[in-house]
Specification:
By secondary structure, this protein is an alpha+beta fold. It has 3 domains: 2-123, Arc Repressor Mutant, subunit A (Orthogonal Bundle); 141-234, SH3 type barrels; 239-323. It is built from 13 helices and 11 strands. Strand 4 (166-178) and strand 5 (181-188) form a beta hairpin. Helix 1 (2-16) packs across helix 3. It is extended and about 85 Å long. The termini are far apart.
Length: 326
């Protein structure tokens, strides 16, 4: 652990130039006293690190010195693909490895490329959770990720929507981060004949137990291909009905801008009516869900069919009006 910290300290000085003991302590999450001891150890081992006194002082390496101790550990290499999503790496238990890997990659770059990499990091940032919603809290995500890496069978308690938690034994194949939500792709274990992978929301995993049993990952399984196909199939199962509506041009533009993407093709296919409004057949999840979703558009959107949805919209509008009569 100390050897890794000494290397990280050395790479920080190499990549960033002069740093104070306080800055180094904050980066490495240790005390300043520990930094003093580590700098002494580096100096005693022949590393040309020295202190500059005064208000603008700090520690720095002798000009021109560069270490070549930049080999990546397996954990650091595994974390590199998450370097654009630092909170995801932290949730998977790879935050420290990712930070160390980034330092090593920067140290191995020529000066011109290293400066460019630092500028990119300072100018581009990926924030994956959707607006107005926090990322899912998945307390067992790191344990699940470990089982994915090591191909270990897990025994979990999982809560399906609206149902009690049930125990399942699974072979975890991969994890997917979608708009701040983590999904686990896994096979039931032992896998039934003809049964394929299933998708679980990681935040609904209440407990995880490692069984100590390894499984053989299917050679033909591709996580990206599976997720693409599953996502399309899932969207089709969500929108199982339609509603015929009339909407103003202003309403159409507003719904296209902030409404669900699944509505856009239907809005594009809308035809103009005699009164200047547009008629469209929109996909909906259910009458209840549509009544809540459409209510936000107020008089910009009128439901024509189905009759049950039109009745519910009218009742909701009358109830709202009564609230403001007095």
């Amino acid at each position: 652990m100390r050897a890794s910290r000494l290397l990280s300290l050395l790479l920080l000085l190499q990549n960033r130039g002069r740093l104070t003991a306080g800055q180094l302590a904050a980066e490495l999450e240790v005390s300043e006293r520990t930094i003093y001891r580590d700098v002494e150890s580096l100096s005693a081992s022949g590393i040309p690190v020295y202190a500059e006194r005064g208000a603008g002082g700090g520690y720095r390496l002798l000009d021109g010195y560069r270490t070549r101790l930049t080999g990546l550990t397996s954990g650091e290499a595994e974390s590199l693909f998450l370097s654009a999503v630092p909170h995801a790496a932290a949730e998977l238990g790879l935050g420290a490895e990712m930070a160390a890997a980034n330092l090593k990659v920067l140290a191995a770059m020529p000066e011109s490329l290293r400066g460019r990499a630092e500028r990119v990091r300072g100018r581009f940032h990926l924030d994956s959770p959707a607006w107005f919603r926090e990322a899912d809290h998945a307390p067992h995500l790191a344990s699940i990720a470990t089982a994915v890496w090591e191909e270990q069978v897990l025994r979990v308690r999982y809560r399906r929507w609206g149902k009690e938690a049930a125990e399942r034994t699974i072979a975890p194949l991969g994890l997917v981060l979608k708009s701040g939500l983590w999904y686990l792709v896994a096979l039931p274990f032992p896998a039934p004949d003809g049964g394929g992978p299933r998708t679980y929301r990681a935040s609904r995993v209440d407990s995880v137990e490692a069984t100590g049993t390894r499984f053989e990952r299917p050679g033909d399984f591709d996580l990206i291909d599976y997720w693409t196909d599953w996502s399309r199939a899932f969207e089709k199962t969500v929108y199982t009905a339609t509603a015929r509506v009339r909407i103003t041009p202003e309403g159409r533009d507003l719904v296209r801008e902030v409404g669900p993407p699944a509505l856009r093709p239907a809005l594009d296919a809308a035809h103009e009516c005699a009164d200047g409004r547009l008629e469209a057949v929109l996909p909906i999840e259910s009458v209840h869900h549509a009544s809540v979703e459409f209510a936000q558009w107020g008089p910009l959107l009128e439901v024509l069919e189905p009759a049950e949805l039109r009745t519910r919209m009218a009742e909701s509008a009358r109830a709202t009006a009564r609230l403001y009569e007095n």
